[in-house]
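Handout, page 2. Input:
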Amino acid sequence: MSNVRILVIVEYAEQQLKTSTVSTIEAARQLKEHIGGAIDIVALVSGKNTDTITKAVAALPDISHVIQADHPALQDNLAEPLAAVVCSICTAEAYQAILAPATTFGKNILPRIAAMLDVAQISDVIKIMDAKTFVRPTYAGNIVTTVRSLDTIQVITVRSTHFTKNIDTKSREKFAEIVAWPTDKLPNFSHLPVASFIERKETKTERPDLATASIVVAGGRGLGSPEQFSALMTALADKLGAAIGASRAAVDAGFAPNDAQVGQTGKVVAPKLYIAVGISGAIQHLAGMKDSKVVVAINKDPSAPIFQVSNYGLVGDLFEILPNFLNKLEQFSKK
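Output:
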C-alpha cells in the first residue's frame, strides 16, 4: 500500500452491496484526485462470513485493497465493535480520511469513530472542493456551507445522491487485493460498552428502493387515512413503477411505515421524477427531496410551500385529481 490512504466503510445487506457504498467510493475517488500523488482507496468489509461481499467489493473500480474483518462480534455491524475495528486499523496504518455513506448505517458509526479519534466529523458532504475543504447543507438544506478541516484525518459522511456513478465490474482486469485483518489486531470486544443485537425488522417489497428509485410518489397527511393512502399511492406507484414515500406527518399518523419517510429525519432522495400528493412541504420534508430532477405537487392550498420547489403544480382536490390521473395512465398504457 501507499503511504497515504483513504478508508471507505462498506455498507451492505444480505450479501448485497448497497448503492450508497458505490457513491461513497466515487466521493473517495474525487478526494483522491484533489490530494494527488500515490494514494490507495481501501475498503473495509466487516461482519461474519463475508467472503461473498468481500469479493464483490474487490471487483469494484478505484479500490486498491479490501480489508476483511470477519468476526462473530461484527455479525450485525453494531456501532461499538465496528468503530473499535476502524480505529484499530487507523492506529496501525496512516489514513488521511475515513468515509461512509450518510445513511442510518454511516450516521450510527462515524460519530463514534470521530470521538474516539478526537476529530470533528464532517457530515452530509455534497461536494469536495480540495483535500481538506468540503461543501455540506445545514439548516435543513436552506444554507450550503463550505467547511475546511485542519484535522490530521477527515471523518466524512457522504450524501450519496450527489456522488452517483454507474459501475462496470466486468471492465476491471485485476481485482483489488483482499487483506484479512489479523485476529490478533482486532480489539478486545469484551471490553466494549454492553450492546447487543435484538431484532431487525425489514419491509420486504418488490418495489424499487426508495433511496435510489428513479421515480418516487410520496403521500402526505392530506390523504386522510391509512386506507386512502394505501389505495391511491399503491395504484399510482404500480402504474409508474415507482417507490412509495411519505411525509413525516403521514408516518406519524400511521399512514405509512417509518422507512418510507422522506425528509431531514428520514431518507434523502433525488429521483428523476418526484410526485408529492397531499404534502404541504414543511422545511424538513423539502430537505429530503428538493434535489429531485422534476417535482410535481398536488395540493389544495395554493400557498403550500411544496409549490416553491415544484416544476409542475396542480391546485385542487387530490381525491378528484388523482383518480383522473390514474384513468389517463390506464388509457395511455392500453395504446
